[in-house]
Design goal:
mainly alpha, two-stranded parallel sheet, single chain, 4 helices
Length: 143
């Protein structure tokens, strides 16, 4: 099995090298129908991992076109039924110290949450400096 795997890896490496040094490589790289940069839509919730990912995405935005920034939630961000019915599931994030919040009627962020706007505003403050280093950074208004 190991021999087959290493053989396949070697074949893929050789194929990649041939495409790279092929006389057709410049033609393939300049296809008019190929987008210059991938287009992406970024979904994020206000938890730290997504906020940090969004910061990184903004700093790497010269490598792709950001088509949209969308507020999202995961299975852990439930809205409730709107009647105030509480839910309590032991071991969930709202039951772990130091939170220990007890029964909840919702586990969503505040209605006026604006972490995406806050990050885009912070990006706008450093945008002039980013443009010094690379002209391809999108204007904050575009985001």
């Amino acid at each position: 099995m190991c021999f087959v795997r290493s053989r396949c890896s070697l074949l893929m490496l050789v194929a990649a090298a041939l495409v790279t040094i092929s006389p057709f490589a410049p033609i393939l790289a300049q296809r008019p129908d190929a987008p210059a940069r991938p287009r992406v839509v970024i979904t994020a919730d206000p938890e730290l991992d997504d906020s940090n990912t969004l910061i990184r995405a903004l700093l790497y935005s010269t490598d792709f076109d950001i088509e949209g920034l969308v507020y999202a939630s995961s299975q852990f961000h439930w809205r409730g039924d709107g009647r105030g019915t509480t839910q309590y599931i032991p071991g969930r994030e709202y039951t772990r110290p130091p939170l220990t919040l007890g029964p909840q009627s919702s586990w969503r962020w505040a209605p006026d949450e604006r972490f995406i706007e806050d990050l885009v505003e912070a990006y706008g403050k450093v945008y002039p400096n980013l443009k010094v280093h690379h002209a391809g950074y999108p204007a904050p208004a575009v985001l």
